[in-house]
Design a protein that fits this description.
Strand order of the largest sheet: 2-3-4-8-7
Radius of gyration: 36 Å
Structural class: alpha+beta
Shape: elongated
Number of strands: 8
Oligomer: single chain
Helix content: 55-70%
Length: 358
């Protein structure tokens, strides 16, 4: 009997309710407090399986776990930014299977709820999209899910994250990662910023050079109108000189000028550059229109036949063409004068910015 009483008392003691739960429920296996930690399930769950290491292509450095993540490529160490607010991340996000009771057959019922985004989901999504990764700001703005961070994209992200860092410290962490991960000191960052801005200017200079050569080719075939077309060459030379002035100011500003991290200062620089860009492109378009117009008008007469024995009819035709060429050139000069004033005004602003002390 003693051998029976002792185990029975032990059973009673072990199953005696503490009083902290509703009567009769403390040891109920279906009660929420008696459930194991919820099972984590993912629609795409390779990240949790054996061999996942071989598929992982990134290391997560920082994230706000809402919109952005900064990752490092395990292959070459380059930095990437991932966009987390799209549908692409959902299949990787963990879902918790939580017991909520029992069904009519007595089996445990589960409810699946979306969990907060975790590191594994971000790494898996980025790894699966690595082959479609973009490169730089233009691809990022086109909507790439993951994109390699170059100097231009780094500058854009830094500008955005600086505005939000005061409200969310996670942006401060991402700022720190981008700056250190890109291995830039202040001088190096400014030099890269110079290149980004000067790329636009180089593009304009190359287009001016191409158009000048095109106009020369047209003029070489139309010696009769050499004097009439000469103002175009003069104007394009002036435009090239003005663009060179813009280039000098941009270099001086970016390397030695005022506080480029000041939003109003940076905006003023960008506005002046846009003004130069727009005006120069307008002049270039007028030059294209001029060249097209000259060719369309002079095809009426084979200029190679022009000599001292021109008939009165041929001379009249040349005079008519000459009048049209002069009209086209006058239109070009008028547009040129308006737009060059805008470039001069923009360069004056850049000159003032260049003199701002740090």
């Amino acid at each position: 009997m003693k051998n029976f009483i002792k185990p029975f008392q032990s059973f009673v003691n072990e199953n005696r309710e503490s009083g902290y739960y509703p009567p009769g429920t403390e040891f109920d296996p279906s009660a929420p407090w008696n459930q194991n930690d919820p099972d984590i399930q993912r629609e795409n769950d390779w990240i949790d399986s054996r061999g996942a290491k071989e598929r992982i292509k990134f290391d997560l450095l920082a994230s706000d776990y809402n919109e952005f993540a900064i990752l490092k490529s395990l292959e070459d160490g380059d930095l990437y930014v991932a966009y987390l607010a799209g549908d692409e991340i959902e299949e990787y996000m963990p879902k918790y299977a939580e017991a909520v009771g029992r069904d009519e057959d007595g089996d445990t019922e589960y409810e699946y709820t979306d969990a907060e985004m975790d590191d594994e989901a971000i790494i898996a999504m980025a790894s699966d999209n690595a082959d479609q990764a973009g490169n730089g700001l233009s691809d990022w703005e086109e909507g790439c899910v993951i994109c390699k961070i170059d100097a231009e994209l780094a500058e854009s992200l830094i500008n955005d994250f600086e505005k939000w860092a005061s409200k969310n410290k996670k942006y401060g962490k991402m700022l720190e990662v981008i700056r250190s991960g890109m291995s830039m000191n202040e001088a190096e960052l400014r030099d890269r910023n110079v290149k980004v801005k000067l790329d636009r200017i180089y593009e304009l200079k190359n287009r001016i050079k191409e158009l000048t050569e095109e106009t020369k080719a047209i003029n070489s075939e139309l010696k009769e109108f050499d004097t009439d077309i000469k103002p175009v060459f003069d104007a394009m030379k002036v435009l090239n000189d003005r663009i060179a002035t813009t280039e000098r100011y941009v270099i001086k500003i970016t390397r030695f000028g005022g506080p480029a991290d000041n939003p109003s200062y940076a905006k003023a620089i960008e506005q002046s550059l846009e003004q130069v860009d727009d005006a120069a492109k307008a002049i270039i378009n007028e030059c294209v229109r001029l060249n097209t117009g000259v060719k369309n008008n002079t095809h009426q007469y084979d200029i190679e036949k022009v000599d001292e024995n021109l008939s009165d009819k041929a001379k009249a035709l040349i005079g008519k063409i000459k009048a049209k060429v002069i009209s086209l050139v006058d239109r070009f000069k008028s547009a040129f004068n308006r737009k060059i004033e805008k470039i001069d005004a923009a360069n004056a602003s850049l000159e003032k910015l260049a003199s701002t002390k740090v």
